[in-house]
Amino acid sequence: MPGGRLSHQERRSIAEGLAEGLAYAEIARSLDRPTSTITREVTRNGGPTGYRADQAHRATERRARRRAPAPTPAPPAETDAHGRDREVVRDFEEQFTALLVRTGLPKMAARLLGCLYAADTGSRTAAELVQRLRVSPASISLAVHYLEEQELIRRERDPGKRHERYAIDDDVWFRAMLASANTNALLAEAAHQGARTLGATTPAGMRLADMGRFLTHVGQDLVTSAEHWREVFSTRPGSGTADHPQQAQDRRPG
Fold first, then answer.
1. Fewest C-beta in 10 Å: which of 4, 53, 168, 226?
2. Where is the HTH marR-type domain (predicted)?
3. Whether 19 contacts 26, CB under 8 Å
């Protein structure tokens, strides 16, 4: 290619052209190269009478090796207190946040929740969240308010300190399942009421009755499964579950 490094075969063609007495411009046209490229190549490698293709090619390779900079070693990965690559932790946090957004959480609330889940303590102060997420304190405040309303995080105060921390409860997803079951129960009751109002034998009434039965059974199964697995996890050594299983029973949708 014009302007690129000459190949071994091109150098042989140059040598043949010089042996035939061709001018540099003619050799250049036959190789589709600038005349200046041929001139420099011949001048630095013995001139018109001393040019040898093999010698020229080896000399060029030697010069290229001398000019090549030594590879710069990659800097060691920055690790945290547990020896984890901080970039890997960041990547997980971003991927987890994206999944939370897909479940319907507002983006800022999802970012804050993902940040808390990626923290070994499960909690951070408002200042730490501002610094890590690079947003304003007002954005943190709005996201905290939303997540508190959804009972996905709670406030706690550091002993001996004035600032508050925002933390995830160990049973947060259990409570989320109960909230979903409560919503199902409300929809089921509304569907049953609609079936009675519109007439159980009418097409609309039968459709609503089926909806009500489906949501009732799914909600009951959801609560039963959530209570079972919460109790299993709460018996593990080191479990930090906040409530006793009986408290979960008290919150079961009626």
1. 4
2. 104-161
3. no
